[in-house]
Amino acid sequence: MKRSNRLVLLIGIFLAVVAFVLILVTLNGNSNPSSNSGANATTTLVVVAAKDIPLSTKITAADVKTKEIPIADKPANGFGDTSFVIGQTARKAVSAEQLITADIINPSGTVTSIDVPAGYVGVSLLVDQTTGVGTLIKSGDYVDLVMGLTGAETVPLVEISTTAPRGNATPPPSTGPAYTNTDIPYNSTTVKVLAEGLQVLATLLPPPPAATGDNSTGSGTSLGTDQQEMVIVAATVQQAEVIKFAQMQGDISLVLRATADCQTANGQATPCPIVPTTGITLRVLVDDYGVLPPQIVQVIEPSPLPNVLPSGHPAVVPSPSPSPSPSAAP
User: How far apart, in Å, are the Cα atoms of 184 and each of 11, 154, 156, 162, 178?
Assistant: First the structure.
């Protein structure tokens, strides 16, 4: 009996120790509650800028950090981990401690203001899916402006006399006479890159079409040229004059530069390299690119067959030439 009571006592002591340990663990947990875990969490982590991030900069680990804020203050398009934004391009200028949201790396919606860099002006260009890289140009990108001109009334024939080597970005002066459009036939189409490395400050797309009630969904994106995009670029005042002339007189296209070409090794935005171009005419295509020019092919027409009269038809005898009338006697 005594042995049984001793066993019960030992079991009771063991249970008391276990209960004591559980109480300590519980009390310790309550004294250091985790503010951002569990069902009763009141705060959460968001990604913010660790320093100012200029437009067109590739975001690195040193540019961002996490910050604890009340859950109610976290925007729906915010990020909770820096891995979601590292390596992305800043499509808007960001200030230190500013929240990094989806609009920073993939802007959408209405643009209400733009920041034009000092020494530049903002110029808007209207392009479509063909002339504007599928209307996929975004703020923070860099583009080149290409203009094409054609038509004898727009591109007169001018004789150029110069020894400047082809490939010089500076057009040679015209020292020869200008010909009229009817003097000689010629191809009047000419194409040239007029402005390089224009930084895109903002883009504007038309609102999406209203719902038609059709629940069917298509794959891919429409490739029609009716989709337009307004692209606002930073340009010098001189470039603004060139762009305006191109808009009024010719056909313009924007070509998209590789982002890496306009960033330093650590992702900082830097001016794009300027690449001298020749400009393109039919003469350049023939001389430098091996395009075969049209050649005149002379077709020798055969002599007409003699006129064979049918059998039984009387031969035609030519009338004798009239004799000259005798001149009067002197």
Answer: 117, 16, 11, 21, 11
Fold of 43-105: Type Iii Antifreeze Protein Isoform Hplc 12 (3.90.1210)
> For 158-182, how does the pLDDT look when each residue is reduced to its tens digit (9 = 90+)?
655 445 555 445 555 555 555 555 5
Q: CA 2, CA 45: separation in Å to the nearest integer?
A: 61
**Alpha carbon distance 219, 65 (integer Å):** 38
Does the predicted TM-score (pTM) go above 0.90?
A: no
pLDDT tens, residue by residue, 59-114: 999 999 999 999 988 889 999 999 999 999 999 999 999 999 998 998 876 788 88
For the chain, what are the domain ranges?
A: 43-105, 121-206+225-289
Distance of CA 103 to the CA centre of its chain: 18
Say how many C-beta atoms besides its own lie within 10 A of residue 316's C-beta. 8
Give the model confidence (pLDDT) of 22-53 as tens digits: 776 565 555 444 444 555 678 999 999 999 99
Helices (H), ranges, 68-125 = 102-105
pLDDT (mean) for 140-161: 82
SS (H, E, C) 228-243: EEEEEEEECHHHHHHH
User: Which of 256, 230, 198, 201 lies closest to 90 in space, CA to CA?
Assistant: 201
- Measured CA to CA, the distance from residue 53 to residue 64 in angstroms comes to 9
Q: What count of other Cβ atoms lies within 10 Å of the Cβ of residue 163?
A: 5
Torsion of CA 106, 196, 270, 237, to 10 degrees: -100
**Owner of token pair 């503010």:** 35
The one-letter amino acid code at 176 reads G
Question: Could you give phi then psi for residue 44, rounded to 5 degrees?
Answer: -150, 170
